[in-house]
Design a protein that fits this description.
InterPro entries: Aminotransferase_I/II_large, HTH_trans_reg/aminotransferase, PyrdxlP-dep_Trfase, PyrdxlP-dep_Trfase_major, PyrdxlP-dep_Trfase_small, Tscrpt_reg_HTH_GntR, WH-like_DNA-bd_sf, WH_DNA-bd_sf. It comes from Marinomonas piezotolerans. This is PLP-dependent aminotransferase family protein. Keywords: Aminotransferase, DNA-binding, Pyridoxal phosphate, Transcription, Transcription regulation, Transferase. By secondary structure, the chain is α/β, with parallel strands linked by helices. The chain folds into three domains: about 60 residues, Orthogonal Bundle (Arc Repressor Mutant, subunit A), CATH 1.10.10; about 140 residues, Aspartate Aminotransferase, domain 1 (Alpha-Beta Complex); about 240 residues, Type I PLP-dependent aspartate aminotransferase-like (Major domain) (Aspartate Aminotransferase, domain 2, 3-Layer(aba) Sandwich). It contains 15 helices and 16 strands. The strands form four sheets. It has an eight-stranded mixed sheet with strand order 4-11-10-9-8-5-6-7, sandwiched between helices. Strands 12-13-16-15 form a four-stranded antiparallel sheet, covered by helices on one side. The protein has a two-stranded antiparallel sheet with strand order 1-2. The N and C termini lie far apart (about 50 Å).
Length: about 475
């Protein structure tokens, strides 16, 4: 065993046995090097090893610490959805959520929108302004149906961080990830086919299933490890499933990152049953660990994984720039994209390509994911203090949304309406099921506004629950 591995083992043991507690500062690199008679680079490598395991976190100019957020032993229960394919409903509720931004809503916790006020977006905004001023005609004509060549080149380079080796011709640019998911579903299936999905699942993905006249088969999903491969295999044996649609990295709404060995096992399962995987990686770059986890696409040997993503969650939804790496389905995807919306606007693609090329995107991601991790911990603390004792909540490993499971007495459909009257907007759990399950759950975001406003929102929700169920406190 190498010196750095031995040192990492010793530190790991001290942390796991409570010698160093959550929030404690760990010995400095120089101090450990002196105490153990090793080089500074050996200590740094040991700390990097523990960072990837999330047992240690580095704080700029302060040193290394044990993360203040302990392991969450109060996770929501693993879902138990219906065990048969179903038509997706819930459109009216989704439309209401998307359209509902009343002026009296001070505390917005319902929309999965990123923080767009950060200073690291300034170079992108300047590029957009310069392009509009200097080359306004560039945005008027037709562009490449597959997307601007420079952007596709930059996206193929960006994919290396997720373990994917892509050529720019493998990439098709779309109008956001929603179009990417919709195009991919149509490319791998026909009306009436069955798509296996996680449960709970992002409502936009389910509405894409509905629009393509497909049926959804919800698979039990663990809030920390993701879709149950055992349940999925049973479903594959029982039903003629055409594709699996998953968000395995910084999932929406649960926030988990599926372990790498499980991602590989999911891919092998798809190979065994010869079906496609549609991988939604829209939050992948926002995981709190570094380097970011590999995508399922990284294991793709035969082109059956269609990787979808966009800048809607990492940068801004108004850019409307997403993409697909469709593998063997590239030609079908390109054709469906053409008949669906033809080309995408050019100026935003050029600006984003420059943002990527000059390193602005990397700087932005480094800053924003640290901000989101801090905001997560603040919101979790507010939930722990103010909501009912039996409340269960996820501890996201990335992104900026989390999933709350209240005691069964709490109806979040009713709670959503009550909270709205008090200026607080939340997303009811029933939106995240094909049949309206999860009525005692909700999704909350922690991406924008202040910690004080978010805490105020949690207090208002707590008061509303207490008024009807005082026994829960």
């Amino acid at each position: 065993m190498s010196l750095y591995a031995e040192l990492a083992d010793r530190l790991r043991e001290h942390i796991e046995h409570g010698f160093y507690k959550p929030g404690d500062k760990l010995p400095s690199v120089r101090q450990l090097a002196t105490e153990h008679g090793v080089s500074i680079s050996t200590v740094q490598e040991a700390y990097r090893t523990l960072e990837t395991e999330r047992l240690v976190e580095a704080k700029p100019k302060s040193g290394y610490f044990v993360p203040s957020q302990p392991h969450n032993d109060n996770l929501p229960h693993t879902s138990r959805p219906p065990q048969r394919p179903l038509d997706v409903s819930q459109w009216e509720q989704v439309l209401n959520l998307l359209s509902n931004r009343p002026a009296n809503t001070r505390i917005q916790l319902q929309h999965a929108a990123p923080d767009m006020t950060v200073s690291t977006l300034t170079p992108l905004l300047k590029s957009l302004s310069d392009l509009h001023r200097q080359h306004p005609d560039w945005g008027l004509g037709y562009g490449d149906i597959r997307g601007h060549i420079e952007l596709r080149e930059q996206l193929s380079r960006l994919a290396v961080a997720s373990g994917c080796q892509l050529h720019h011709d493998d990439v098709v640019v779309t109008s956001g990830c929603q179009e990417a998911l919709s195009v991919c579903l149509r490319a791998v299936s026909a009306p009436g086919d069955i798509i296996a999905i996680e449960s709970p699942c992002f409502y936009g993905a389910m509405q894409a299933i509905k629009a393509a006249n497909l049926k959804a088969l919800e698979i039990p999903t663990h809030p920390e490890h993701g879709i149950s491969l055992e349940a999925l295999q049973l479903a594959l044996d029982q039903w003629p499933i055409k594709a699996i649609l998953v968000t395995p990295t910084a999932n929406n709404p649960l926030g988990y990152v599926m372990p790498e060995d499980k991602k590989q096992a999911l891919y092998k399962l798809a190979q065994e049953y010869d079906i496609a995987i549609i991988e939604d990686d829209i939050y992948g770059d926002l995981t709190y660990e570094f380097p970011r986890p590999r995508a399922i696409k990284a294991f793709d040997e035969d082109g059956r994984v269609l990787l979808c993503s966009s800048f809607s969650k990492t940068v801004a939804p108004g850019m409307r720039v997403g993409w697909i790496a469709a593998g063997r389905y590239r030609d079908q995807v390109t054709h469906i994209k053409y008949v669906s919306s033809s080309m995408c606007p050019t100026l935003s693609q050029i600006a984003l390509a420059k943002f990527l090329r000059l390193g602005g995107y990397d700087r932005h991601i480094r800053k924003i994911r640290n901000t989101y991790a801090t905001s997560r911990d603040q919101l979790l603390q507010a939930i722990k203090i103010h909501l009912p004792n039996a409340t269960r909540v996820t501890c996201p490993a990335g992104g900026f949304v989390l999933w709350v499971e209240f005691p069964p007495e709490v109806d979040t459909t009713k709670l959503t309406e009550q909270a709205q009257e008090h200026g607080v907007a939340i997303a009811s759990g029933s939106l995240f099921s094909a049949t309206g399950k999860y009525r005692s759950c909700c999704r909350l975001n922690y991406s924008d506004q202040t910690a004080e406003l978010r805490t105020e929102g949690i207090k208002i929700i707590a008061q509303l629950i207490k008024a009807e169920h005082p026994n829960l406190f």
